[in-house]
Amino acid sequence: MGNFPELQTQNLVLREIADADAEDLLRIHGDAEHMKWFGSDPLTDIEAAITLVHTFAKWRQEPASGTRWGIQLKRAPGLIGTCGLFRWNPRWRTCVIGYEISRLHQGRGYMTEALAAVLGWGFAEMALNRVEAQVHPDNRPSLALLGKFGFVEEGLLREAGYWAGLHHDLMLHSLLKRDWGSGRAV
Fold first, then answer.
1. What confidence tier does 186 reach under pLDDT thresholds 50, 70, 90?
2. What is the distance between the alpha carbons of residues 74 and 33, in angstroms, rounded to a whole number?
3. Which entry of 11, 39, 172, 178 is 20 to 30 Å from 132 by CA?
4. What is the DSSP string of 68-137?
5. Distance of alpha carbon 57 from the chain centroid
6. pLDDT digit string (tens) for 115-148?
């Protein structure tokens, strides 16, 4: 996929995630209550966080996987979250979006700002036609965020996720390129 595509917004830098970010990832992904909808078990130690850094980096080396950005405030060092486009199918021009933000930074509009940049990049640079999101039906903040961008609910994926020792239903939402610039998106 070439060089890592750093993105800048009014308040944020979306950049490559590095080993030095492992402690920030552990703080975010180790918060079991806050990460209950993320789709994986919470991280338990710094080694698991470093493994996650390497997993995100490996995505860019795979032929059709994707990109995960670290979200950093322009005015302060360290990650406040991540977001990315993954499960990229270049032939079908589709992918899945995923994101999480620290509890401290939730509700401040940062993820809206980050996803606007990532979606714009995906439609322009990856030539995407469709972006999917899979969200737990009880994750109201995430569902509201998708609504801001005009994602359309398509249905329930029964027991599509498995974490915390349980199977979880997920709601499938999608955003088409033709809807991206139609005024429905932020």
1. low
2. 27
3. 11
4. EEEEEETTS-SEEEEEEEEEEETTTTEEEEEEEE-GGGTTSSHHHHHHHHHHHHHHHHS--SEEEEEE-T
5. 14
6. 999 999 999 999 999 999 999 999 999 999 999 9
**d(Cα 150, Cα 153) in Å, to the nearest integer?**
10
Domains and CATH numbers, the chain: 7-180 (3.40.630.30)
**What residue type is assigned to position 34 of the chain?**
H
Is the distance from CB of 15 to CB of 69 less than 8 angstroms? yes
- Backbone angles phi and psi of 159, in degrees to 5: 45, 45
63 vs 83, more confident? 83
Q: Which amino acid is at 78?
A: G
Q: How far is Cα 14 from Cα 139, in angstroms, rounded to an integer?
A: 24
Cβ atoms of 144 and 96 closer than 8 Å: no
